[in-house]
Amino acid sequence: xxxxxxxxxxxxxxxxxxFNVLDIGENKDxxxxxxxxxIIQKVANKCYLPANSLILDLIDxxxxxxxxxxxxxxxxxxxxxxxxxxxxDSFKQLAKTNCVEFLGETYxxxxxxxxxxxxxxxxxxxxxxxxxxEFGFNPITFRNTELIxxxxxxxxxxxxxxxxILAEGAKRVLDWRSPLYAYKDYRRxxxxxxxxxxxxxxxxxxxxxxxxxxxxxxxxxxxxWVNNLGLDKEEGKNLFLNLFMDYETFGEHQxxxxxxxxxxxxxxxxxxxxxxMRFSWPSDVLNLCNYEPExxxxxxxxxxxxxxxxxxxxxxxxxxxxxxxxxxYLLDKIKKNKRDDxxxxxxxxxxxxxxxxxxxxxxQDGDVHKYFSPxxxxxxxxxxxxxxxxxxxxxx
Amino acid sequence: xxxxxxxxxxxxxxxxxxxxxxKALLKNSVEVDLVLPTKEEVYxxxxxxxxxxxxxxxxxxxxxxxxDFKNVEEKIKYLGLKGYPETYINFEEVESYHxxxxxxxxxxxxxxxxxxxxxxGEEDIFSKIKEYTIRAYDFAEKLKFDLIHVHDWxxxxxxxxxxxxxxxxxxxxxxxxxxDRSSISGDERIHKIEHxxxxxxxxxxxxxxxxxNLVFNQYRIxxxxxxxxxxxxxxxxxxxxxxxxxxxxxxxxxxxxxLQKGPDYFLEVGNRIVKKHSDAKFIMAGSxxxxxxxxxxxxxxxxxxxxxFTGFLKRQDVFEIFSFTDIYVLTSVSExxxxxxxxxxxxxxPAIISSRSGVAEVVxxxxxxxxxxxxxxxxxxxxxxxxxxxxxxxxxxxxxxxETIRWQTASEKIKKIYRGLL
Lengths: 396, 422
Description:
The complex is a heterodimer.
Chain A: E1 2-10, H1 33-61, E2 68-72, H2 74-83, H3 85-96, E3 100-102, H4 112-115, H5 117-135, E4 141-142, H6 153-159, E5 164-168, H7 171-174, E6 183-184, E7 191-195, H8 197-204, H9 219-227, E8 239-246, H10 260-273, E9 277-280, H11 285-288, E10 294-295, H12 312-315, H13 318-336, H14 340-348, H15 353-356, H16 363-372, H17 378-395
Parallel strand pairs in A: 1-2, 1-8, 1-9, 2-3, 4-5, 5-7, 6-10
Antiparallel strand pairs in A: 6-7
Helix pairs in contact in A: 1-2, 1-3, 1-10, 2-3, 13-14, 13-17
Chain B: H1 13-27, E1 32-34, E2 42-46, H2 51-54, E3 58-59, H3 72-79, H4 97-101, H5 111-118, H6 124-142, E4 147-151, H7 152-166, E5 169-174, H8 178-181, H9 188-200, E6 203-206, H10 209-219, E7 226-228, E8 250-254, H11 263-276, E9 281-285, H12 291-300, E10 307-311, H13 315-322, E11 327-330, H14 339-346, E12 351-354, E13 367-369, H15 374-386, H16 388-403, H17 407-421
Parallel strand pairs in B: 4-5, 5-6, 6-7, 8-9, 8-11, 9-10, 11-12, 12-13
Antiparallel strand pairs in B: 1-2, 2-3
Helix pairs in contact in B: 1-17, 5-7, 5-9, 6-7, 7-9, 11-15, 14-16
GO biological process, one term (chain A): carbohydrate metabolic process
Keywords (chain A): Carbohydrate metabolism
Protein name (chain A): Alpha-amylase
């Protein structure tokens, strides 16, 4: 049986203002409220609202057989409350169907795992409490920021009560293995589910690419591929086709005109015609895994970003490294000085997107970085970020 | 007078210097018709000192229609004056220095021919200069004047043309040469134009001894017509009250981030000092072709948030930066004059300045260093960081000293040079 596991990432950072040296000490807002409002509202109309409404319809229509999971960051929920409360309401409606699973992650979508383990745990706790409060859901599946995973992340996840963890199905992790099986972490405490990146990216990145030989992607074609993954030999075993992607794929990265919503709408109906396919949640692996999963060792961190699928999207160049080190040096100082009044602003600056904008990678990935960045250049995003940190430090 | 820059829309020292100079000349009852690179064929007849701010306009032909403007900025915009630092474009077509040297063989050639030959290029700046130069004929024929005064190579072709057309004497002012702007060679066309302009001139004015030496060594200008008139300082702004923006001391670099200004030396010094004084803030104010390189290297040195960048600054922002600066540093590899250090000193900021600058010749109360001597530069900054009293003392002395460096004195010297030609 093949279990199609959808996980959608819902996240928007607090984008930093154009903050100049002269703005330091002048009580200027760290974040560009107007821009963040504009983006939240734009994406709400193009993606969050229509996609939520479609998924709610599908859940109703197929009476619980259509299942999806979401990871929604704390910072995007805060911004929904401020700029688009109807989006949060629609997620709450989805929660009420009991047909969606909510995942746990860091509240601020941060890289704190790499720099400050205490902070990492605090942010996981904060996020869990928020999900419980907003959706009445107690998450048992964990995904770290940008799907960053390495062995000892599972230790933290276990300590926080998680049972399942999601990661990128990078080739250097899997080697000859297939991402379709469930795995266990290096201590065999948690289940690991790995993203099937080629099929995920066919939807997330290539769906509307006219230069792609497979264009246009139809539901029939897609499910035909799934059906021919060589599963016939594995009869009886429960396999997991993990389709992980940004939620903004629907209507924002792929516009409505590309037919992306129709694809999603038709998918469940066709899946139901295959006897060997169904939709599942990540946490279903706990009951469905009917074989002894292999242990997967991941010594070097993997992520779902860029071609490299490592940490280079956020910490490759010297600007990113200096910004990250300066940030964590300051966060430490704020905590030591017990300046809780500065902690909230400081934590909003831990979001990984700030460092992503500073990337100077070129070729294909540079374009992706550029697409997401609100700044004219990586250098400018670095300058504004450092200036904001300086303002924060002067307030200490 | 032909010049490429004049306030309010200026990019660097040239516009600031012309402003102070013209204002003082007007006070000294010299009348000036100013020609700028405007879209419309106009000139600015200046008759009284206030005119440098009012910028009265006359059309050369009769076609010009009277138009009312709300303010000077609006007028300037209508006339099509650009506010960008195009004066200092680095040309990509750089030919060898040796080729330039062979030029001296045909020095008896007519300067106008040389200019016609070398004022060639597809770049925006060259087509603009050509347009400006062609217009110089009209100005020379239609305006009444006694002398022609031109500033830097951009206006030398116009000066030579105007001299041929009118038979009047030509004064060539040197604020910077191609040798200052580029490291060794530079753009051959610009060298030729500078050389031709200075040779055609009846008097050449260098803004410092440093520059006059350079001009003599490189262009072999007749010493009898070479004069030195130092720039000065026009206190045209309200001094903002001193502010404290940062807990630690603020050390400022102000200028284009380009080879000539030695930004890399400022960074190296910053790197050394921040390691010892973790609260010191180094601010690099300006923009330029080396900006990204310096940003990346400062991050590579892991200077945290102790090395900050402002990007291009408006004039008002410059004064604001001065209001919280504790130490000003000029690391220029070659600085014909350097008005910015005088402005910093007028704010009571102690200055450490490169000895390869004109400004080093006119001030006593600044610490003078060799731009390459990072050890001494580091110890000088540290000395000032560790001795706030001394800092204040030098700052106050600097302020007093700068007040004595007046454009009035400079304009008297210029007037004397004028008289010698008439």
